[in-house]
Amino acid sequence: MASQTASAPGKVILLGEHAVVYGKPALAIAIDLRFRCKIAPSDSVRINGLEIDRAKHPYTSHILSEHWKGGIEIETSSAIPSGSGLGSSAALCASLNAAMMAYRGESDEETCARRSFDAELKAQGSASPVDTSASVHGHGIAVNLEGGTPIWDISHGKRRWSISHIDIPRMTLVIGHTGISAPTGPLVAKVRRYYEHSNFAKDMVNEIGSLTEDAAKALSSGDRVGLGSMMTENHKLLSILGVSSRELDKLVQAALPYSFGAKLTGAGGGGSMVALTDRPDKVCEAIERHGGRPYIVSSGQPGAMVEK
Ligand code: MEV
After folding, report:
1. For the whole prediction, is pTM greater than 0.90?
2. Ligand 1, closest atom to CA 85?
3. CA–CA separation, 95 and 6 (whole Å)
4. N or C: which end of the chain has fewer CB within 10 A?
5. Domain co-membership, 280 together with 263
6. Which residue, among 175, 176, 184, has the nearest Cα to 269 in the 3D structure?
7. What pLDDT, on a 0 to 100 scale, did the predictor assign at position 6?
C-alpha cells in the first residue's frame, strides 16, 4: 500500500485538568475539530515536505523512534489551533499512531491510546492520559470516575488512570479561543513546582478532584445548573493554581451572564475557555466582543479513525 491517512479529534475538558496529572478525576468530550495525518514510506524522514527537525517535532519524533523503522513521509493538516487547550498535540499523536497502525493492518484503540500517551509524556515530561484517550476514543470520557463503561487503564510510576466511556447528554457548550498559543508542557511543569512545594496547592488539587466527582453526578443526571456552577468553581481553583490569564478571565466573565457556568479548558495560560449555556448566540457575541474566537461544540464525535 502506498499511503495511509487517519484523523483524530480535539477535545474539551469539562472539569479536572491539571489535577488529573496527580491521579484525580476528569471529564472530557471530543469535539468536531480534527487533526489529519497521511503517511507513506520514504527514503528519508520528512514532515510536510521538509526533513524532520526533531526539536520542533518532539511528539512525532518520539512516536517514530518507538514505532517506525526507516524513512517516512508525513503530511499533516489540522483544524485545531496549536496551544489552544483543545488537544492538538494529543490529536496529532492519536492520528499518527492510528495511521501507522493501519498501515501495518493493525487497529486497536487501547494500543493507540497507550502509544499516544507515551509520546505526550515523553515530549511534555509530565502528563495524564486524558487528552490522548479522549482523542483516540472520541465521544466522552471520564478518568478515575465510577459510572461509565471502563475502556482501559493506564499507569505511570505510582499514578494510575482508569478511563471510561460516558454518554454525553444533550447540552450546548461554547468554546472561546483567546488566540494566544500556550504550550501544555511549561504549564504542567509550573503546577508541578507549586504542587511539590505547597500543601495549599495540594489542597487545591484535592478540591478540584472532589468537585469533578460531584460534577460527574450532575452531568449524568442532566443538571446543567449544578454542572455549570461547578465549572465556574473549577475556574476559580485553576486561577489559584496560577494557570488562568487576564484574557481567559475576561472571556469567562463575558460568557457568565448568558451561561450556567464557564471556565478555562485544557492547560490554560492562554488557549481557550468553555461555557455551558442555553444561549449560545449570546455567548458567542460576548466572546467576540471581548476579543475571543467563539466556536459552538458539537459533541458525539468519533475518535481516531482511518480515512479513505
Ligand atoms: C491539558 O489538556 C490537560 C492537563 O491536565 C495536562 C494533562 O492532563 O496531560 C493540563
Report:
1. yes
2. 2
3. 5
4. C
5. yes
6. 184
7. 98
